[in-house]
């Protein structure tokens, strides 16, 4: 759970979750309990250190903040 | 044209309004709330109270959102009665609003401690954005806190104290936090989390009285043992009282919550209920059940909206809920109904990792994971599948759960 960043291959490019702080402006801020089931699983898998996530079913958007044990920003690269 | 009235603009009411507009584009929809702001992110108000998140991202809908969807939004409007024979909702301003279909989505209000001075200045309850603003301001100025209520919301007060540098004493009635869902092993991890943010759990305690200063501000809590805990901030989270006062003249069935079936219908025609205040028929456990979580409230609102618009039993509410605690450097997630099992299996993996699974008739009905959440989706899947697996609990307690290691399902 201490991973500060992680990547995944995704059909629209790879996704990174980067530790951030709350004052970073974001198009959307969601707590993990607000994520649909597949997105929650994807986020947890990324934070557990996986670099590849089999499922591409998630609704994360560029720049959004996810509130978990830290604040994380979603980026696609 | 069907007239829909929704009382409550929390996530369940709002999600119903959105669904009805999609399903019945030509209808009239009115959403009534006694709060002064449209839907906001009730989960994230704790981050605001902690001083971490500004106000703006916590808002979900502005008033335009309702205008764009031709939904009539009445803010600051308290519903005082409902006449289910006449199909009319009456507001505090004595406006009568007729309905064809009514949704009750009014959630709950935190229960006040029935002890002396429990409404003193500096004593807080936590439900609305307004509460969060006051808690933030009060905690910023405080040095010592007392927290009461050893459940999921009490811990949010502990987190506020941690973030705002307030020394806290968390007074609990029993020997551990959330004793209905956690054994001593699991609870001890949470206690360490609290200590880590400067909040000390005090067991076999509980407040029997608050002391106030000359200005009426809280200055101490006296516990059941007569011990005195000085404080200039107190957080009380001992439970919710459901907002159903306005239904007293109706025959709507209540049993510590509004009783609904799996379609979110009450026993009274054209009246539905959704969200925290329902006692719903949970098809996954085959019994009435309750749940207070964002995802469940949102889904109940959506399913109610579908069935109201269809004027039929079109969709069943079938949902495995999740509730997380994200305040410590290890995560916590509870799912389903972790407190109602007739059998439990648990394991501790390390100082910060623990898992417990609740079963009824051998089927998974809920659980709690601390530290390592990797098994959550598989355990939820088993709950959805209603598979009898309690006799193979060892497989479910492996650190990495592999469902292929379960024996194939036998014909029941
Ligand atoms: C501090 C806090 C932290 C939380 N953390 C989490 C979490 O981490 N994860 C999670 O899943 N859930 C969490 N929850 C719970 C979650 O927010 C609720 O389960 C969910 O918001 C319930 O939605 P609802 O629509 O049923 O009710 P509510 O959001 O309570 O909405 C009901 C609305 O009805 C209005 N109302 C009541 N009576 C009347 C009346 N007579 N007339 C008009 N309007 C009325 C109320 O003012 C309110 O706006 C948290 C809740 C709080 C307060």
Automatic annotation (TrEMBL), chain A:
Spans annotated as Disordered: 1-28
Protein's UniProt name: Uncharacterized protein
TrEMBL record, chain B:
Keyword Electron transport in record: no
Highest rank taxon of the organism: Archaea
Occurrences of domain FAD/NAD(P)-binding (ranges): 3-283
Domain NADH-rubredoxin oxidoreductase C-terminal, residue spans: 328-386
A molecular function (GO) term: oxidoreductase activity
Keywords, in A-Z order: FAD, Flavoprotein
Cofactor dependence: FAD
Protein name as it appears in the record: FAD-dependent oxidoreductase
Source taxonomy: Archaea, Methanobacteriati, Methanobacteriota, Stenosarchaea group, Halobacteria
């Amino acid at each position: 759970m201490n991973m500060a960043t992680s990547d995944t291959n995704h059909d629209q490019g790879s996704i990174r979750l980067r530790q951030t702080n709350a004052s970073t402006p974001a198009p959307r801020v969601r707590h993990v309990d607000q994520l649909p089931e597949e997105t929650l699983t994807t986020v947890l898998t990324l934070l557990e250190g996986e670099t590849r996530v089999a499922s591409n079913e998630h609704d994360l958007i560029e720049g959004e903040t996810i509130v978990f044990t830290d604040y994380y920003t979603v980026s696609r690269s | 044209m069907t007239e829909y009235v929704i009382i409550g603009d929390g996530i369940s009411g709002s999600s119903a309004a959105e669904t009805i507009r999609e399903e019945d584009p030509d209808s009239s929809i009115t959403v009534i709330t006694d709060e002064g702001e449209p839907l906001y992110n009730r989960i994230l108000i704790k981050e605001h109270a902690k001083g971490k998140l500004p106000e703006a991202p916590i808002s979900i809908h502005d008033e335009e959102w309702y205008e764009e969807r031709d939904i009539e939004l009445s803010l600051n409007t308290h519903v005082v009665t409902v006449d289910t024979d006449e199909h009319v909702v009456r507001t505090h301003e004595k406006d009568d609003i007729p309905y064809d279909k009514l949704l009750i989505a009014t959630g709950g209000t935190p229960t006040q401690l029935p002890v002396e001075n429990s409404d003193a200045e500096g004593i807080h309850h936590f439900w609305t954005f307004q509460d969060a603003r006051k808690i933030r301001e009060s905690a910023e100025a405080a040095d010592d806190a007392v927290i009461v209520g050893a459940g999921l919301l009490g811990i949010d007060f502990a987190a506020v104290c941690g973030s705002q540098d307030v020394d806290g004493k968390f007074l609990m009635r029993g020997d551990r936090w959330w004793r209905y869902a956690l054994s001593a092993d699991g609870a001890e991890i949470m206690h360490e989390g609290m200590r880590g943010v400067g909040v000390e759990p005090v067991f076999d305690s509980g407040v029997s009285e608050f002391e106030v200063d000359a200005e009426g501000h809280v200055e101490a809590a006296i516990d059941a043992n007569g011990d005195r805990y000085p404080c200039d901030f107190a957080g009380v989270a001992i439970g919710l009282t459901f907002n159903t006062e306005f239904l007293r003249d109706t025959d709507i069935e209540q049993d510590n919550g509004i009783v609904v079936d799996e379609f979110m219908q009450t026993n009274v025609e054209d009246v539905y209920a959704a969200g925290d205040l329902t006692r719903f028929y949970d098809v996954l456990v085959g019994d009435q059940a309750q749940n207070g979580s964002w995802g469940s409230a949102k889904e109940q609102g959506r399913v109610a909206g579908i069935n109201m618009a269809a004027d039929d039993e079109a969709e069943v509410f079938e949902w495995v809920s999740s509730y997380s605690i994200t305040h410590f450097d290890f995560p916590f997630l509870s799912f389903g109904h972790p407190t109602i099992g007739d059998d439990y299996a648990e394991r501790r993996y390390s100082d910060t990792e623990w898992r417990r699974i609740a079963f009824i008739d051998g089927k998974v009905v809920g659980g709690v994971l601390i530290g390592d959440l990797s098994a959550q989706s598989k355990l939820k899947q088993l709950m959805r599948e209603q598979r009898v697996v309690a006799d193979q609990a060892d497989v479910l307690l492996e650190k990495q759960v592999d469902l292929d290691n379960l024996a194939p399902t036998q014909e029941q």
